[in-house]
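Sequence in, structure out. First:
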Amino acid sequence: MKNALGVSLGITALVWTYLALNVIPGVLVWAGFIAWGAYFTVGKDALTKTISATIFGAVMAAIAVGIVALLDDYLAVGIAAPIAVGLTVYGLTAFDKLNNVPANVFGYAATFGFLLMGTGFYDALGMEGANLIALDLANPIIVTSLSFVLGSVFGLISEKVAGMLK
């Protein structure tokens, strides 16, 4: 088939979107697609590397929020967030075993996007980090991580289906 990957992506995207919107509670269609795209940037052994890298990015985003919460009362307005982001983005490259920078950044950015949807950065901090330690779907790290895992799996599935269609 001339465009096996395109056909495979279309079919699996249909299934993923249906499941994410109707069957699997709490997952984010768009975050799954981000991990899915990351899957194709990773290369060999993409599934485990993509999952670990995107989740690592999500955890680093949560750490950034925690740093802001700790520093915000002690620094001039608008300084804590850039410091926290600078430190944690550096951290995305600091561990050899998790040094998949594109997927790390995708997980980081998607998690920040989810944390800040509809609010400004400092409004998101008003929760005082309570949701970041919840062990349910109120926790943005759990929601994005679950979405990343499933999106990565759909990346693998779409790759395998494309191989069968060739």
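Second:
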Amino acid sequence: MKIATYNVNGINARLPVLLRWLEEAKPDIVCLQELKAPQERFPEKEINTAGYQAIWKGQKSWNGVAILTRNLEITKVQDTLPGDPGDEQSRYLEAIIDQMVICCLYLPNGNPYPGPKFDYKLSWLKRLKKRTDELITMDLPAIIIGDFNIIPEPIDVHKPERWENDALYRIEIRKAYQNLLKKGWLDSIRTLFPEEKIYTFWDYMYRSYDRDAGIRLDHILLSPYLKSALKSGGVDRNVRGWEKTSDHAPTWVCIEK
């Protein structure tokens, strides 16, 4: 089974790119972030025509998450990360697919640091840890997947010394990510490629893609139940080079249940 995450950076603006990639890559499960579309403007018809069904939570102008499946039933569990009833940002979507819990997330960016946006990111991470700890305790086959807006290690960023006070790389944020791994979650891409430079995002500015000056922000974390199921994975970085594409590239793994 092939499971992927892709920050599309505007699903309607990038729809031709998304549909082309779906046709070429044929993932079974896809988690999308940054839809930048209200609920009623999700392109369900086009997605269905491409052979996928979908659930989604849109938001006008910003955020928005979706889960797509090919020949697999989706049962929505919740579309808000528990812990803050006043949080109206569309950043979390949880579903059961093929007896697995899929948690699609678009974690807050947090910049500028310091400030309220960084504080919101820290509080969001605390809520995420509480939910993911529950999944560990239940010993379920579960996957946390999406754009984490976290650069875990120096190897995951071009010129890390320039990022020390950026909310993507602040020590508090990296520690929160490491705490997830210490609890038992497996960083699947880094496990498959322990020493390789792997990026999933290249800024539109400064010819970042041409210079390979990227960062690794998009992660697929497997619960202990699924650790032995991991078979392969990678980043479809060529998609970042397509015309009118997102600044992220699709990231994927294959598991054998």
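Remark: The longest strand covers residues 100-106.
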